[in-house]
Design goal:
This protein is an all-alpha fold. It contains 14 helices and no strands. Helix 1 runs antiparallel to helix 8, helix 3 runs antiparallel to helix 4 and helix 5 crosses helix 7.
Length: about 300
């Protein structure tokens, strides 16, 4: 992923684009971008480790369904940041999602004794993603940083954190053997390109729409994972997995519908707190620029 992101990053740097390399950025903007990159990069590194571990321990289908809590996590974090309360209808659909995930985590038995502790690792991934993505969206909106700049900085930090960890846990011999294995490198190239393109498209998307809305587009992903697992891995779909998938999809679609309904019925209100202060500052800057006035 990092190798595929570098050519565009170098081209942007030579052209003076982005938040780090352009001339004359606002005071403190570079420090803000670097601080955000370091913090969110650490979150992404931890999420990458939990992602692989979660898929290994709970299975591809279960982990893919667990990841669908990402829109709920993003919406909850944005609600906390912007001070917006959920309606009763939204809370009802939220409880449906939580119930479906509990049904999945307990293997359809609805008993705490059947709750897999590794399922918590899989659930940690969308929580970490949501926090990082919401923060990065504010950076993309409020600064001149580009989606590829965000992607590259994320990958640099993830590699810097996970490479020493791999050497310490697996040992240099195992890492060298993986680096020399042809099939492993073919897989790495294919997945690296796919994930890089996915990240680039993702950050372009969240620059224009809320993270929770963008995450909701990925709702059908578990169904695709289930189908591919059956075709290539010989997996079988259990009844409790299908029930959980249906519950999660119904809950997320219901949340989208309830949110859209509320936004149409309720006039926009001016928020309070940090987020509204940022929004007001951005509006003031835009207004000043339109009038030709200094900020």
């Amino acid at each position: 992923q990092l190798a595929f992101s570098l050519p565009l990053a170098v081209a942007e740097a030579r052209a003076g684009r982005g938040g780090l390399f352009r001339e004359g950025p606002p005071p403190g903007e570079r420090r803000k971008i670097v601080a955000t990159a370091l913090f969110t990069g650490a979150l992404f590194a931890l999420a990458a480790w939990a992602y692989v571990l979660g898929f290994e321990k709970v299975g591809a289908v279960n982990a893919a369904i667990a990841l669908q809590i990402c829109p709920l996590s993003a919406a909850s974090f944005q609600a906390a940041l912007f001070g917006r309360r959920k309606s009763r209808l939204e809370l009802m659909f939220t409880l449906l999602i939580v119930g479906a995930l509990f049904h999945l985590a307990t293997g359809g038995r609805w008993r705490m004794t059947g709750l897999s502790p590794w399922f918590a690792v899989a659930l940690a991934v969308p929580l970490l993603w949501a926090v990082a993505h919401v923060i990065l969206r504010e950076t993309l909106i409020g600064t001149a940083t580009t989606p590829n700049e965000v992607t590259t900085s994320r990958l640099v930090i993830v590699v810097a954190l996970l490479a020493p960890l791999a050497l310490a846990v697996d040992g240099p011999a195992a890492v060298a053997a993986a680096a020399m294995a042809p099939m492993t490198q073919v897989f790495a190239l294919a997945m690296g390109l796919a994930y890089y393109v996915e990240l680039l498209l993702w950050f372009h998307a969240v620059r224009h729409i809320d993270v929770s809305v963008a995450s909701s587009v990925t709702v059908p992903a578990p169904a695709v994972t289930l189908l591919l697992s059956m075709v290539f891995l010989g997996a079988t779909a259990e009844a409790y997995q299908l029930v959980a998938l249906a519950g999660v999809v119904a809950g997320l679609l219901g949340l989208m519908w309830a949110s859209t309904r509320r936004s149409r019925e309720t006039p926009a209100k001016v928020g309070t707190g940090f987020a509204s202060g940022v929004a007001r500052k951005q509006r003031d800057r835009a207004s000043s620029a339109n009038r030709g006035l200094p900020e």
